[in-house]
Fold this sequence. Notes:
Four copies of one chain form a homotetramer.
Chain A: E1 8-17, E2 21-27, H1 28-34, H2 37-40, H3 62-81, H4 92-101, H5 110-117, H6 121-130, H7 134-142, H8 146-155, H9 161-167, H10 173-186, H11 195-201, E3 202-205, E4 208-212, H12 216-234, H13 237-258, H14 271-275, H15 280-285, H16 288-298, H17 304-314, E5 320-323, H18 330-342, H19 347-350, E6 352-358, E7 376-378, E8 384-386, H20 387-390, H21 392-397, E9 402-409, H22 411-415, H23 421-431
Helix pairs in contact in A: 1-4, 3-4, 3-10, 4-8, 4-9, 5-13, 6-8, 10-12, 13-17, 16-17, 18-23
InterPro entries (chains A, B, C, D): dGTPase-like (IPR050135), HD/PDEase_dom (IPR003607), HD_assoc_2 (IPR045509), HD_domain (IPR006674)
GO biological process, one term (chains A, B, C, D): dGTP catabolic process
GO molecular function, one term (chains A, B, C, D): dGTPase activity
Amino acid sequence: MMTYSTEKLYEEKVFKDPVHRYIHVRDRVIWDLIGTREFQRLRRIRQLGTTYLTFHGAEHSRLNHSLGVYEIIRRIVDDVFAGRPEWDQNERLLSLCAALLHDLGHGPFSHSFEKVFDLDHEAFTQAIILGETEVNKVLTRVSDDFPQKVADVIAKTYENKQVISLISSQIDADRMDYLQRDAYFTGVSYGHFDMERILRVMRPLDDQVVIKHSGMHAVEDYIMSRYQMYWQVYFHPVTRSAEVILTKILHRAKELSEQAYFFAYEPYHFLSMFKGNVTLQDYLKLDESVIMYYFQMWEDEKDPILRDLCRRFMNRNLYKYVEFDPSKEYKKLQELEKLFKKAGLDPEYYLVVDSSSDLPYDFYRPGEEEERVPIHLLLPSGELRELSRQSDIVDAISGKRRTDHKLYYPKDFILDNSSKRAVKKQIREILGIE
Amino acid sequence: MMTYSTEKLYEEKVFKDPVHRYIHVRDRVIWDLIGTREFQRLRRIRQLGTTYLTFHGAEHSRLNHSLGVYEIIRRIVDDVFAGRPEWDQNERLLSLCAALLHDLGHGPFSHSFEKVFDLDHEAFTQAIILGETEVNKVLTRVSDDFPQKVADVIAKTYENKQVISLISSQIDADRMDYLQRDAYFTGVSYGHFDMERILRVMRPLDDQVVIKHSGMHAVEDYIMSRYQMYWQVYFHPVTRSAEVILTKILHRAKELSEQAYFFAYEPYHFLSMFKGNVTLQDYLKLDESVIMYYFQMWEDEKDPILRDLCRRFMNRNLYKYVEFDPSKEYKKLQELEKLFKKAGLDPEYYLVVDSSSDLPYDFYRPGEEEERVPIHLLLPSGELRELSRQSDIVDAISGKRRTDHKLYYPKDFILDNSSKRAVKKQIREILGIE
Amino acid sequence: MMTYSTEKLYEEKVFKDPVHRYIHVRDRVIWDLIGTREFQRLRRIRQLGTTYLTFHGAEHSRLNHSLGVYEIIRRIVDDVFAGRPEWDQNERLLSLCAALLHDLGHGPFSHSFEKVFDLDHEAFTQAIILGETEVNKVLTRVSDDFPQKVADVIAKTYENKQVISLISSQIDADRMDYLQRDAYFTGVSYGHFDMERILRVMRPLDDQVVIKHSGMHAVEDYIMSRYQMYWQVYFHPVTRSAEVILTKILHRAKELSEQAYFFAYEPYHFLSMFKGNVTLQDYLKLDESVIMYYFQMWEDEKDPILRDLCRRFMNRNLYKYVEFDPSKEYKKLQELEKLFKKAGLDPEYYLVVDSSSDLPYDFYRPGEEEERVPIHLLLPSGELRELSRQSDIVDAISGKRRTDHKLYYPKDFILDNSSKRAVKKQIREILGIE
Amino acid sequence: MMTYSTEKLYEEKVFKDPVHRYIHVRDRVIWDLIGTREFQRLRRIRQLGTTYLTFHGAEHSRLNHSLGVYEIIRRIVDDVFAGRPEWDQNERLLSLCAALLHDLGHGPFSHSFEKVFDLDHEAFTQAIILGETEVNKVLTRVSDDFPQKVADVIAKTYENKQVISLISSQIDADRMDYLQRDAYFTGVSYGHFDMERILRVMRPLDDQVVIKHSGMHAVEDYIMSRYQMYWQVYFHPVTRSAEVILTKILHRAKELSEQAYFFAYEPYHFLSMFKGNVTLQDYLKLDESVIMYYFQMWEDEKDPILRDLCRRFMNRNLYKYVEFDPSKEYKKLQELEKLFKKAGLDPEYYLVVDSSSDLPYDFYRPGEEEERVPIHLLLPSGELRELSRQSDIVDAISGKRRTDHKLYYPKDFILDNSSKRAVKKQIREILGIE
């Protein structure tokens, strides 16, 4: 008997996708989910936040990525896993839905917003799936407990660990999509690996998804690709500069609000965030258009710091940076803070240390804060072996955290000799700029 | 003596570009123009307007395209034309600036805005270049008459026709960039041609830019690519549906404003548009973030038409269409209009005929309204020949206008049987939907 | 019950292919056919004959192409046609075998060999499939009448016209593979079209394979791609020059043999060809290695013409050409022939008119010599319409034969002034060379 | 004054190249070198030897690669180095010629031939450049000492180490071309790195070519690409199987010749090789066509081993393999050798251990047998730093040799139970095959 969960569209729908060529939709449930307002909202949130200020092509939305993750999972469950005894094909629809919806709770410029306003996009993903939303209505039509199942997969608490592994592990559909997609839209030559090969060698096995040994080199390529994308794109110093300024804008706006500052243009959408009582409905109204609208308005605010920061962000007049070693240069930082104050620049906003770090691949270390599930290779003998024990290259970089610290500041202000010349000269000497 | 116009950056700046691999900037003037707020504003205007609702990858901005056009011109003037006696290398900087700035006056969703509010983006491009703007300041530093020269090139009134031809002709840097760029971001397989080849065979000659005969096949490919992009991407029926709804939103808002409707949320940014007295400063504040912000607010307006249209646009619940022949089916349209009214649907907003037409290539027809400059091939003998006289394929399609008409309507309303069942049934019969 | 015809390999075999990414083999029959000596022989015959002398990348073999055609058919029958009532899935294996083997009878540099020695590669394909060969043994294991069926499909006499249509029609797997493959290996930017799209819209219908209307633009692109490849690659004047010389080598060798010339190195492999009694076993020994071996030997033959021509071919010292209009310039040709003789150059070998012509697409014209099956579009109404009636572009070029004539000659000889200076001067004047 | 060394062609010549898009030739000397018979001979030698039996696309010739290396050097010297004070532009033509000719002495299937007949392709490169050849004539026209200079660069004894470094170092034009080219023709997804970026950051400095620090990640990608190509393509076990058989064919033919075996078809081209007195003229006649010709003839020789091996090679009926640890499994090998003899299979030809090993990157270790020049990064401070000290990834793999051993054997013979069933059963048990 055909039920909603097995209903197929009369004709397959196809979206043209630059990364996977086509996104294929045949399931009514998936089609309905794509049409919900909560999913369409992801069009108005960029996948890479402020990265478009460094790589001008990186203007692609999270909707873009979400469709891509869905398509990868669809190929795995329909073309690779279907028919294998270790895989329960009843998990098919659940896997597809979780893939499509895994990023549903992301807000605009998530990283900065979460930090400043103490939000959690994963909690919002859960809330959208389980709350009074169009998405929830569609999922409930499948069955009463279906929304909870989808939420559990995304929260990694679902009982069938194979499903979780497909969507969040060290080699999951999420990462495989974003590495390729972000490489495509930024135009960098990193980010390429043979995904078709990896999909063909994935195997469901007990409580995980493993990789046939013959696919090891494709996985090595994927790990290297991940490494390069982190350092060449995601942690690019110019992007981090934009992120620093964005964070400081939010910070300043909140501070002004707490000081009962009178905004020329009342920031309705921000009020509950300033107060820390954001509802789901408030949250869903936030998208990057809204944020950019306010930033444009704030370019004319009377508070000089808020105004300056917004102008910098909107017109890409970002901070410059010098390398900074926090373990050794603490005194230098203190000295600079003093000088910035003397120069009339609040160091809280104009002198910022930013650190990025990445762990390209990690094997399982039980008991540690972030227990990553390792990648296992399936040897011809049937034995499993953890990737870094088989691959020299992965072994070489696994478990090694690399961290990079930079000190950001507005170079144009420091070079401007119309006032405070002596102090600025001192600052320039310490920062080593001509 | 080095002046501002010949000043080079200490180190060449490079932007990663997915289409041309790298955008190279060595001239101080170009670098300064890129940093202006008017140029950075182009980040907030999509190159393809509503196309992202059909092709989800098409989220790239006009800044993206503007840099691309600049890069193409840079390669032509520096690598192909430099040193040729027929070319005046003094026009180099002017060509680069005109390339970079040629789309500066575009607003959000230009097509719809211009139609509803009677605006003209070309006039705004002129105004930005010649008015009190950061762009004008940079150009004036080159020389007092430089802004006017740039404006003249873009307006096609500049005396050196070679420069105009590079930037606007039937095979110019503008088209060469957008065809490739739009193909890249939508992911379609059309839009590819051998630009490197075309650039290498371009030759300045008298008052035009001609193509060496040996490059004819590459040009044929370009013309075909243009043809396919028009019909597969630019005139895609789903994009036109989004465009129809967008136009109707603006139309409705204007109408409401003229009827002194009380907006729950005052549309400040729109007021001068409603009144028809838009200043340059008003115009520069318009970008797609602002438009999307208002559309989101209007999703909760009390006017049912404005509210419905905005919800459709934001959540991609677009109109469906049937083919429509305006020359023969006029009566049918009248009949439908009557039935729509009976069904409670204002045909002004809910029953829309949209026509698209394109002329893939045209040879020169003096005296006609739109005098297109033809593409000339330079034969080995030194003789010039108009492209369509040499190429069978181009001859086949040149001068032939193709037009496509469709009738758009909200299918969900027509299928909804909760009211007016009889009328809707009649409508469905006429439209031929089940 | 599993029989040989349905036997699957324990694990799918995969060949890496630059054009289709992977060639997948699961059927035992296909695997066995690939392993036959007659199929492996195709490794030693280049897909594009002498084209590698113009496009140095064009060194790919016919084995390469044969695997590609097989893979395209595999995707059609397994992914697109399987399960459709209009298609008889019992034809699956037959389609795959015919695809794989359709070029089996090609010899080295087929075009020239067939012309000079009056051979017919299609007859040899039949002979290999039906004769005493490893290929025949494999096919006979399927069933006694299976070799004949495969031969019939390739000969276009098989009763199920859908199967024939897949492998030889105006939009078949053969053409779709070679256009893309030849573009890939030559490196030209033509030859690209959206094959994935075309495959998805192919439909079996009555006695043909039709294209769903929505795929029309992809088909237009394919037709244009074909047009460009013909004129840019297949009929490239330099390739034709190599072809002219090759033909003349074969011609000379045959002539010498008939004149009982004593070859310093006896051309065993050629003897039956000279005499016109080539057996299948003789034919199968011919491959390009053998030909090149003899040409190398003949570089030192005492006959000055054979020696010169072989040296030219081996060391790419080809003839140059001028445009030539046979309908008007017949007298000029006669005059040149006289002068060549005076200059000591046999015009039979050193003054050659070569003509190429192509018909990019043709609709059905019953009764004409070459009855091409037209491409039919399947309209939403269920009606069929011939492609050129629906597509402006295809209409423009359909049925129009384009022909190009060139006159080839050894420019180095004509420029060499060590002898016959006066005559050569006259020749140069007529040919218009400096 | 224009001399031969500075003479430019009237019009630039362009070859279409799939990897670098176009190969540009403007220098008369280069054009003349390309036209020599010794250079054209490289068309008949595959770049990757027997690899085409594993990757069917890998049929590209060494001429292909040689043009590619030339083009890379041309871009470096003309677009990157020209005008830099550290670079002597007088070395331009020398660099271009050495690039074009660096592989001139390669014979067919070099690896096997050199091993069996104790030949040295580098010595032949020297001999061709300095001997009585067309190449030598062209070079001598530049100046009397020019051939010697070119030979010195290729032999790495030339005084200007920058020139040597461009053509042979750990990041030279040779490697950059072949990694990309071999990846392109095999179709693998490895082998990609951002060469354009690397070229732009190369700097001549003292006696080497260094890399600007900002290009480090592109170099990391190149090193990884190299690593993957070695293990995925160059050391592919199937290719090694073909190589094993090829080596054994040559070995057998030599052995037979030494035993005064009477060849049904006298192997003229091989005689001097069998005797160890190969002249330059003999060597230049060897190409892959010649080899394949003999192998075809030998398929019918009466010696059963030579016949069998040739049939295997020609028809791709290769040996299978098992992993083998020579340090531990020596006894097993001895046991197998005994059993093979009992089974009537000469272990010398039918049981072969093959080992491959690679050192992906090495820093300088003076005094060791193979002193590799390390890659140096140029830091912003002007300081040089050896790559592996700056890059975690390179550090991880540098200096680590990885070796892989396999044991090859004819599985079909071992599975054939028509004779010696008991012995073959024992062999199968030891080899672990069913």
